[in-house]
């Protein structure tokens, strides 16, 4: 399986970094099978660096290969097939930074992109009920993300190169 990671730098050796932002699947190294999604994320990271006053080297997609069958056998994997209630509860718990459940090495499932994020914000602000929020999520095409959440899981990622994202 080919995975992509969008950033403002090339990541040959993935690391688990703590983040001040709360993310869908908690702390970890986030990848996707969707190259366009990785490109969009590289742009966001680049823009965030510029706003912070940094001068990032560019926008890059680091590419990895992983044997998904092997990681399913050797690691603790949590897989969400769709944006259902279980996924929703997990994402909300992580975004609110109060998930205290089982620790997984790898988490795979839908990503709450910007459009989805607005729906989640509407839920968090009490504008939408949980049922309404999940119903809205089900009609959207959600891309995927695979999060490597333990140091050991990172050893299963094999760096295979990068591409630079052009401006424009």
Report on this model:
This protein has 168 residues and is an alpha+beta fold. Helices cover 35% and strands 21% of the residues. The protein has 6 helices and 7 strands. The protein has helices at residues 35-51, 68-74, 85-95, 114-124, 130-138, 151-154; strands at 2-7, 29-31, 60-65, 77-79, 106-110, 144-148, 158-164. The strands form 2 sheets. The chain has a 4-stranded mixed sheet with strand order 2-6-5-4. The protein has a 3-stranded antiparallel sheet with strand order 1-3-7. β4 (77-79), α3 (85-95) and β5 form a beta-alpha-beta unit. α4 (114-124) runs antiparallel to α5 (130-138). The protein is globular. The two termini are 29 Å apart. The mean pLDDT is 89.
Compact overview of the structure:
The chain has six helices and seven strands, in the order E-E-H-E-H-E-H-E-H-H-E-H-E. It is of the alpha+beta class and 168 residues long.
Short descriptors:
alpha+beta; 7 strands; 4-stranded mixed sheet; 168 residues; 3-stranded antiparallel sheet
Q: Helicity level, as a percent range?
A: 25-40%
- How many distinct beta strands? 7
Mean pLDDT: 89
In order across it, which strands form the biggest sheet? 2-6-5-4
H and E order: EEHEHEHEHHEHE
Q: Which segments are poorly predicted (pLDDT under 50) over 5 or more consecutive residues?
A: none
> Structural class, judged by helices and strands?
alpha+beta
Layout: helices, strands, pairs:
Elements: E1 2-7, E2 29-31, H1 35-51, E3 60-65, H2 68-74, E4 77-79, H3 85-95, E5 106-110, H4 114-124, H5 130-138, E6 144-148, H6 151-154, E7 158-164
Parallel strand pairs: 4-5
Antiparallel strand pairs: 1-3, 2-6, 3-7, 5-6
